[in-house]
Amino acid sequence: MTTPRPLPATDPRLSVPLYTTREVGRFIDVPTSTIRNWTRGYQYPVRGGSSSTRPIVASTETERTGYPSIPFLGLAEALVLKSFRERKLSMVKIRAALMALDREMGIANVLANKALYTDGAQVLWDYAKERDDSEIKQLVEPGSGQKVFVEVVRRYLQLITYDSDLWAERIELPAYQPTQVVVDMRRGFGRPILEESRIRIEEIVERFAFGNESIQAIADDLELNLEDVENVIRAATRPAAA
Predict the structure, then answer these.
(1) CB 147, CB 141: distance < 8 Å
(2) What whole-number distance in Å separates Cα of residue 113 and Cα of residue 111?
(3) 123 near 100, Cβ under 8 Å?
(4) Which residue among 26, 107, 156, 194 has its CA within the 20 to 30 Å range from the CA of 174?
(5) How far apart are CA 105 and CA 101, in angstroms?
(6) 127: exposed, middle or buried (C-beta count within 10 Å: 0-12, 13-18, 19+)?
(7) Which of helix, strand or coil describes residue 105?
(8) Measured between alpha carbons, how far is 120 from 103 in angstroms, rounded to an integer?
């Protein structure tokens, strides 16, 4: 099994707030309210009062409206969580799976570590088999040999590129596909950019929002493919779910 090293709390991938909950929801096409629950936890009623869940996506502080609170690795975690939700797992089962991963792999923020990609499926399969949990088994392909995640989970994991320290370093944002829009702490200060040209998507969206240029004119001026500009504007201006 891969042995990942814990990430120092001062690492900018974990300590620098880059994105709001609304932005992360838009980047990965998940409701803002869901991202908020993942970063803050939520309360639920129990007999005689209420209880609360713990956050499962990294954030730096309680978000003030309009201010970023989610670091780069928090975005990676949210992307992986979305892949689990694609298998229709309940949040109760997802939280059970995360506890198993944390316990067996021994590090925080494991969803943003390459160890999840290489060993996480086997960990979850063993956990689910021990508890006869058919829901969590849905994340893993059955069969002999080393277990791997099912195709839909692998597809999301393959959007993440890892550094030599095994922690995420680059993420391709699914909301803009087939156009390649990425976030990378080494380029564009962690803001979304077009992979090939390195143009920040904010520049495209701001020019379109100003209202005096057509999409074709923006594409021509920036020397971009028209379809790429259309994809960026469509994804960036789509109303975020509450």
Answers:
(1) yes
(2) 6
(3) yes
(4) 107
(5) 6
(6) buried
(7) helix
(8) 12
Q: Where are the domains of the chain?
A: 12-237
- CB of 172 within 8 A of CB of 180? yes
Q: Measured in whole angstroms, how far is the alpha carbon of residue 160 from the centre of its chain? A: 9
All residues at 6 or more sequence positions from 75 whose CB lies less than 8 Å from its CB, including other chains: 18, 19, 24, 27, 28, 171, 183
Contact between residue 44 and residue 53 where contact means Cβ atoms under 8 Å apart: yes
Element (H, E) at 193: strand 193-194
Alpha-carbon separation of residue 83 from 158, 205, 214 (angstroms): 11, 27, 36
Compute the distance between CA of residue 146 and CA of residue 123 in angstroms, rounded to an integer. 10
Tell me what the pLDDT averaged over the chain comes to: 89
- For residue 214, the number of C-alpha atoms closer than 13 Å in the C-beta half-sphere is 4
pLDDT tens, position by position, 127-141: 999 999 999 999 999
pLDDT digits (tens, 9 = 90+) for 178-232: 999 999 988 888 999 999 999 999 999 999 998 888 999 999 999 999 999 999 9
